[in-house]
């Protein structure tokens, strides 16, 4: 069994539709995965299972040696840091940046019920510092720019010192400068040997941070290709994933893809 994540024939059926269709996937310690796929491919559904927010309809989903359905998910959750639009929507807008991060230690999004240790506050502050947010710790979450919000969410996901970090579309809604800043920070995270295994979901090759090692390509709930990034991110696999004739351009660890006939318009 893979040490971080081991999915065997993971299938999710909702309303008669197969959102995920027999997905096999293994993640080992130290790996940094990109999950690529078009709208509706099932990426978020897959992350919901990896983040213990959803059970598969069939197949087995194991994270960190524990199998969904046979483990108390509340014990597993602190070991899996998750940043997603759905979770961000649950954060009260009036919450301060520091509280948004520190409350992750207790699996809540509001601060009113818990007593917090100084140690947790120090860790939250250190994470916010690492993610360039130390001057904004007392700001209300709702008042932040989209880029700042994304960095707070990542700091929050790291608060429990997880063994698996899942970032579902962390660059969505960012402007070019914000995206490049995030890509650089994620590349530094990828290079950090002490960092957890990472899974990053995106639609865009430009958002793949240098240093990411593997890619899972999804289409209509099924795996098109999966494996080491350099061998797996090919024009043939992109064509099969996005149903488009794409030219793949690699440059210094960064990637982009354009339609092969884009010069003709
Ligand atoms: N409860 C549900 N019942 C039926 N269909 C659903 C349900 N939840 C999600 N879907 C469908 O499942 C498919 C996969 O959704 P999912 O959000 O996982 O895709 P995605 O790859 O993350 O898409 P996007 O890139 O647009 O965020 C979509 O077609 C969606 O409409």
Walk me through the structure.
The protein has a domain at 30-58 and 72-227: P-loop containing nucleotide triphosphate hydrolases (Rossmann fold). The model has no long low-confidence stretch (mean pLDDT 92). The protein is built from 9 helices and 12 strands. Strand 4 (58-63) and strand 5 form a beta hairpin. The strands form 3 sheets. The chain has a 6-stranded mixed sheet with strand order 6-7-8-3-9-10, with helices on both faces. Strands 2-1-4-5 form a 4-stranded antiparallel sheet, covered by helices on one side. It has a two-stranded antiparallel sheet with strand order 11-12. Helix content is 29%, strand content 28%. The termini are far apart. The protein is α/β, with parallel strands linked by helices and 265 residues long. Helix 5 (118-130) packs across helix 6. The protein is globular. The structure holds adenosine-5'-triphosphate (ATP). Adenosine-5'-triphosphate is lined by residues 14-15, 17, 19, 37, 39-45, 203.
Strand content: 25-35%
Q: CATH superfamily of one domain, called what?
A: P-loop containing nucleotide triphosphate hydrolases
Main sheet attributes: strand count, strand direction, barrel closure: 6 strands, mixed
Side by side, the strands of the main sheet go: 6-7-8-3-9-10
How much helical structure, as a percent, in the residues? Answer: 25-40%
Question: In terms of per-residue confidence, which ranges show pLDDT below 50 for 5 or more consecutive residues?
Answer: none
Structural class: alpha/beta
Mean pLDDT: 92
Number of helical regions: 9
CA-based gyration radius: 18 Å
Task: List the ligand species.
Answer: adenosine-5'-triphosphate
CATH fold descriptor of one domain: Rossmann fold
Taken in chain order, the helices and strands follow as EEEHEEHEHHHHEHEEEHHEE
**Which class of one domain in CATH terms?**
Alpha Beta
Measured between the Cα atoms of the first and last residue, the distance is 50 Å
Architecture of one domain, according to CATH? 3-Layer(aba) Sandwich
DSSP strand tally? 12
């Amino acid at each position: 069994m893979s040490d971080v994540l081991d999915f065997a024939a993971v299938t999710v059926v909702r309303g008669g539709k197969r959102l995920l269709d027999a997905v096999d996937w293994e993640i080992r310690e130290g790996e940094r995965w990109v999950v690529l796929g078009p709208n509706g491919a099932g990426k978020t559904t897959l992350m919901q299972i990896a983040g213990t927010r959803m059970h598969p309809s069939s197949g087995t989903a194991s994270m960190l040696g524990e199998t969904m359905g046979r483990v108390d998910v509340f014990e597993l959750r602190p070991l899996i840091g998750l940043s997603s639009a759905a979770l961000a929507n649950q954060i009260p807008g009036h919450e301060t940046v520091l509280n948004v991060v520190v409350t992750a230690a207790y699996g809540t999004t509001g601060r009113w019920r818990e007593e917090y240790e100084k140690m947790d506050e120090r860790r939250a502050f250190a994470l916010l510092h690492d993610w360039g947010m130390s001057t904004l710790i007392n700001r209300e979450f709702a008042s932040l720019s989209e880029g700042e919000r994304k960095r707070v969410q990542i700091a929050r996901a790291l608060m429990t010192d997880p063994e698996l970090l899942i970032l579902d579309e962390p660059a969505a809604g960012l402007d070019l400068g914000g995206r490049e800043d995030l890509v650089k920070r994620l590349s530094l995270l990828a290079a950090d040997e002490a960092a957890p295994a990472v899974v990053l979901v995106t639609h865009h090759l430009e958002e793949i941070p240098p240093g990411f090692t593997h890619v899972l390509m999804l289409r209509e709930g099924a795996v098109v290709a999966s494996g080491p990034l350099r061998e797996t991110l090919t024009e043939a696999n992109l064509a099969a994933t996005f149903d488009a004739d794409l030219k793949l351009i690699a440059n210094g660890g960064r990637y982009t893809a354009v339609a092969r006939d884009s010069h003709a318009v």
